[in-house]
Amino acid sequence: MSRESDLRRQLRLIVLTHPRPAGGNLVDVVAECLEAGCRAIQLRDKQAPAADLYRQTLDLLPLVRAHDALLFVNDRLDVALAAGADGVHLGPDDIPVEAVRARVPDTFRIGYSTDDPPVGRAAAVAGADYLGVGAVFGTISKVGLEDEAIGPERVGEVVRSCGLPCVGIGGITLENAAAVAAQGAGVAVLGAVMQAGRPGDVVRDLLQVLSRAADEPAAQEAPGT
Amino acid sequence: MSRESDLRRQLRLIVLTHPRPAGGNLVDVVAECLEAGCRAIQLRDKQAPAADLYRQTLDLLPLVRAHDALLFVNDRLDVALAAGADGVHLGPDDIPVEAVRARVPDTFRIGYSTDDPPVGRAAAVAGADYLGVGAVFGTISKVGLEDEAIGPERVGEVVRSCGLPCVGIGGITLENAAAVAAQGAGVAVLGAVMQAGRPGDVVRDLLQVLSRAADEPAAQEAPGT
Asked: Do A99 and B83 touch (CB under 8 A)?
């Protein structure tokens, strides 16, 4: 299997972390997600000092490695590099993708957030490995801010225009994940897993839904598309 | 001249930046400081998104290079590396010095903040190139927080115990800078320069005071020490 299709498979479901998951401490919850089959974790804590984020990355890495999964750090390239994570997830407020790509090893993965097809194409040229596209169904995970929902069709537009693996993000649940997968994208999930009492069960159910949708994409398309 | 004594000379005075200096826009104020003889600038903006800090670092670098000076970025190793700055200044809330040292080129400078001699020695072993020691005379530069003043003698204790170039920081002015220099340390100045209408004049006066104190260290010591 090629390196890119390997990445697409691993990015079928990214679990984004919350510093205080409902289902237990962060390490235990991540372990449950990995045991349930999740192959990509994004460590995300916009308030934590870099020292804490670094320590958490070191805590999670052995678990992630044991499951042949990927660990991304949100925003903090320095933490990702210093701790030896697999990649970083960047957005428009972060260091530009091309500046990061020029300074990191080829094997280091760069994710970038956009819902705009031309921006996604530019990120691909600049050296991004995948895109986070959203907010698909809206989200309240960014403090005090509700992002506008772009809908799954827009995710499909980005998928078809950029040539990179894409993951839809924002308000994704068991009920709506298939509509995103039908667009040829993986999903990034925060609340649905982090607010669950049994996060492993949610991951297992999500992976089943996603796998079914990936096998029958046509059946998931909205009428008339 | 050896590389270390070169660094000591450059670190006689570090000007720390404020995002909105009283004397003009940041680039102009930094240019004035460099023209006045300052050889080390630390870009410091704890609120700015990484993208802005990166852009500011790129804006300042040509100026700093033209004056054979050093540019450090506060906290953000990723910004410093991506933009090609000379170093980063770290504190206890940042990625540990040894983890940073292991991932950056030998020529990349690492500063570390501490007022504790054993912690300073540990930072030297871990790979720090210089220490920021304070708050010497207290400061209100950290939002809403007044640091306790440690006094210049404590700076001298750190200087004598760690073997690294040290700069005193916190509430340093034209009036008290000599007392810090007399301890064998350089000074890091924020408010005295950033709040000045003519920052170049303050830098020139500071360098004169510091140069005199460095030439006659004994005369600056408090009686009985």
From this structure: yes
Domain limits of chain B? 3-224
Residue whose C-alpha is closest to residue B206's, from B26, B68, B40, B71? B40
CA–CA gap between residue B89 and residue B102 (Å, rounded): 16
Tens digits of residue pLDDT in A112-153: 999 999 999 999 999 999 999 999 997 655 555 566 899 999
Q: Are A173 and A188 in contact (CB under 8 A)?
A: no
Distance between CA atoms of B61 and A114, rounded to whole angstroms?
30
Which tokens in the block code for residue A154? 């827009």
**Nearest-angstrom CA–CA distance, B98 and B96:** 6
Task: Please tell me the class of the A3-224 domain.
Answer: alpha beta
Q: What secondary structure letter does DSSP report for B139?
A: B
- Judged by CB atoms closer than 8 Å, whether chains meet at B81 and A92 is answered as no
| Dist. CA A34–CA A66, nearest whole Å | 9
This prediction's pTM: 0.90
A159 vs A184: CA distance, rounded Å? 7
- CB nearest A103 (choices: B82, B92, B95): B82
Q: How many CB pairs under 8 A join A and B?
A: 59
For A195-208, what is each residue's pLDDT tens digit? 999 999 999 999 99
